[in-house]
Amino acid sequence: GFPVELIGQRMSREMEQLINLRLSYNRIDSLFPNGIELGDVNLTEKSTREKDTPIALHADRLSARISLLSLMTGKIRMSLSSDLLSGNVDATASMQDGRYQIKADLNGLDLSGLGFLSERAGQEIHGRLHGNIDLDVPSSNIRTIKGELLLQMEQGKIGNQALKIQLPENVSQFVPADLKEKISKGIKLPFINLGKSQGKFTLDKGKLTVSDFQIESDDISAHLEGYFQIQSRVQHTIAHLTLRFKPSEAKIKEIITQLPSQYQDLAQDALNAELSKAKGNDGYYRYKIDGRLFSPHTRMQSVFKPVKM
Questions:
Q1: How far apart are CA 237 and CA 18, in angstroms?
Q2: Residues 128-166, buried b or exposed e (16+ Cβ, 10 A)?
Q3: Which one of 1, 83, 133, 230 has the fewest beta carbons within 10 angstroms of its own beta carbon?
């Protein structure tokens, strides 16, 4: 019969070698005449720091069909389909001379199912992901991957968790005790609606370049640009990004009004003074995001404003 177990084991090895994620499943069946179907599928990070939630993906079903004709030419070609994150992924993959050609369509993937993403961001993340992926992937060195990703997110939102605010020592000593207590207990970031967001990502020479990821909604307008330096382990990828954003006054007020009423005007003035350092002539605030993919550092990008004569 069709060697389903051997193919399942081969898929597991290739996945682990390619992106350092372990593929496991609780069921494997043959699909007549030339395919397999995996049930209750999990992709999990091989190793991670103890304090981090490991990368984990679950799919109810993953099916793959191999073109028997392609085997006769020395080129392995297969079609794949998966029920993933309450959506689905349809893809084709071919392998020849040690390289994979992968094309995939993403349809309605529910980002709230990525618990590790919300955990590492410190905020709830919701939305439906759609897109197209076209990749040329070497089997030996993921850093030489080439390709393009066109992604869209609908019904996106982020927030609903406490903001981590640390007052500098030279400021903390002047903050009243009741205000300091409120800040230490946490000020919740209200859900920020991200509307329909979209962006283009290009992979080449070890870099994933973000051309312009745009977010437009009543709550915020934002643009993300820069690149990711691809590493052999996906989780070690380094980000070098610039975020430009302009939140609505109503959303800022939602945050400020969580403070005791006697301090709200003071907090608003302090926030405006701090943000003004990163505010450009276009009204957008600029921040740099650098560091590992799931634990980057964020810092204000000071904007030089020439004095008008």
A1: 14
A2: bbbbebebebeeeebeebebbbebbbeebbbbeeeeeee
A3: 1
Q: pLDDT digit string (tens) for 207-247?
A: 999 987 999 999 999 999 999 998 877 778 899 999 999 99
DSSP 279: B
Q: Are 20 and 232 in contact (CB under 8 A)?
A: yes
pTM reported for the whole predicted model:
0.82
What confidence score (pLDDT) does residue 86 get?
92
Cis before 176? omega within 30:
no
Cα–Cα–Cα angle for 21, 120, 201, rounded to 5 degrees: 65
220 vs 86: CA distance, rounded Å: 27
| Dihedral sign of CA atoms 121, 218, 244, 150 in order | positive
Burial class (CB in 10 A: 0-12, 13-18, 19+), 245: middle
Return d(Cα 35, Cα 7) in angstroms, integer. 9
Q: Phi and psi at residue 8, in whole multiples of 5°?
A: -60, -40
Compute CA distances 42 → 6, 24, 170, 212, whole Å: 18, 5, 48, 32
Helix or strand holding residue 69 (H, E):
helix 68-72
Checking 122-125 for CB contacts under 8 A at 24+ apart, the result is 122/161, 122/164, 123/158, 123/159, 123/160, 123/161, 123/189, 124/157, 124/158, 124/159, 124/160, 124/161, 124/191, 125/157, 125/158
Any residues with CB less than 8 A from the CB of 128 and at least 6 apart, and which? Answer: 87, 108, 109, 110, 111, 153, 154, 155, 156
Residue from 247, 306, 252 nearest 281 by CA: 306
Cα–Cα distances in Å, from 188 out to 4, 160, 286? 50, 6, 22
